[in-house]
Amino acid sequence: MAEPEVEEAPRGSYTASEIERLGRERPDAFKSTWTEIGFCFSLLGSMFVAEYFISGFNILLPTLSASLHIPPQAETWPASVFSLVTGAFILPSGRLADMYGGYLVFVSGLVWFLVWSIIAGFSQNYVMLIFCRALQGFGPAAFLPSGIMLLGSIYRPGPRKNFVFSLYGAFAPVGFFAGIFFAGIFFAGLSAQFISWRWFFFFGSIILAIVMIASYLTVPSDREAKKDVEVKMDWWGAATVVPGLLLIVFAITDGSHAPNGWATPYIPVTFMLGCLLLAGTVYIEGWVAQQPLLPADMFNVRSMKTLVLSLFFQYGVFGIYLFYASFYIEEVLHATPLQTSAWFAPMCVGGLILATIGGLILHLLPGTILLVLSGACYILSMLLFAIIPHNPNYWAYIFPAMICATSGIDITYNVTNIFMTTSMPKARQGLAGALINSVLFLGISFFLGMADLAVTQTADRGRRESYKVAFWFAVGCAGFALVVMFLGVKIGKRRVG
């Protein structure tokens, strides 16, 4: 199929050396180097705080369960509802970014996230906490796709864009590690006697406020450029896709914790309703909507269909790794929260190293080779935990698993972000960012629910063996994704630089 026109530098009017030079120069949108630094700080900080509130909350959950008297059957919801809401509302948020500009949606998302992060710190019971966590999810749903939109539209293809995208992807494991580290401090030992768990939210809110102020001052406004773009919200599409995704992921996530499992009446009912709504979405997007939330011609770009399919599985594998690796380390290997944060440190350091190197080599290597390499890393990271012995050597099992995990997500996230944003015209940069992050969060939510179902069904084997079932499930998913990536995704050097 023919690829849609890509709005890049007009190659007919520039020589190859001039295109290379333009790809290294500071974009015209920034008046000074300091403005560009402030912009990058804002974008990287937004990724940092999103991951901070995801990872640290899992470490904090045992303390919250005791403090707020969360019943066992409700313990998964404060952790999962955040990603669920974020993933469900990303596509409409991406459309809003295309309608009103990335700047407005990005800053508004940060403000919303800040308000509900502060309120969450004052939670008096678990119902209030779940409510606040759900409303928190609207923030990343707004600023994540608009952030990728801003990065993709401001920077020209080339080493500079690769480097910034690499740093952006690297701050996912950095923020993840920071969340575990600070939650470990608040939860561990004597510090828990003097520092309330509420300060986990307040400290994150302080960082978030700094990022918000920097964004307001340094992110270039694209509001004027959007005035002449006739983009409208697909309300019928949004009204079916959002509840459809929410109901399906809810059924999958809650199915293993319902009183009678999937035999509980409301589980199959919500699952079927979700499927019917998504079927309605397909009809509306394909035959009714004039400007669908997810236009079919987006997938006319070569390799886009197989890429999205493999990413859905790979991001799901990464979600399983983050969740079950941390629980395995704490509950099976009996590591303290501080020790757990130390064991996850290679993900942070490795991510920064990969970001630095990746910005220099992404435009030199074919994207297909990089994606196959990252696919192998996903498999190894899960395989090492699947075969880990009772008393493992950290350097033989956990350390290489951490390095492989950060290599997998960083390479995949960077290459696919650059490929998708350079494959879409400027009018669809917000949609490209929405698609990327929607696949990310929905993949995590969906496969975590599937892994949780597998763990629950094998609970009689003991915690260690049931967790290993989740790891073997992830190995299979990662293997399938690698095969799809190898056979169906062809991305050359031009598409990553």
UniProtKB/TrEMBL annotation:
Record flagged with keyword Zinc: no
Residue stretches making up the Major facilitator superfamily (MFS) profile domain: 39-493
Keyword Transmembrane helix: yes
Transmembrane portions of the chain: 34-54, 74-91, 103-122, 128-151, 163-187, 199-219, 235-253, 265-286, 307-329, 341-362, 369-388, 394-419, 431-449, 469-489
Location(s), subcellular: Membrane
GO cellular component: membrane
Keyword terms: Membrane, Transmembrane, Transmembrane helix
Chief subcellular location: membrane
Top-level taxon of the source organism: Eukaryota
Membrane disposition: Multi-pass membrane protein
Gene Ontology molecular function: any one: transmembrane transporter activity
Alphabetical list of InterPro entries matching this protein: MFS, MFS_dom, MFS_trans_sf
Protein's name according to its UniProt entry: MFS general substrate transporter
Organism of origin: Zopfia rhizophila CBS 207.26
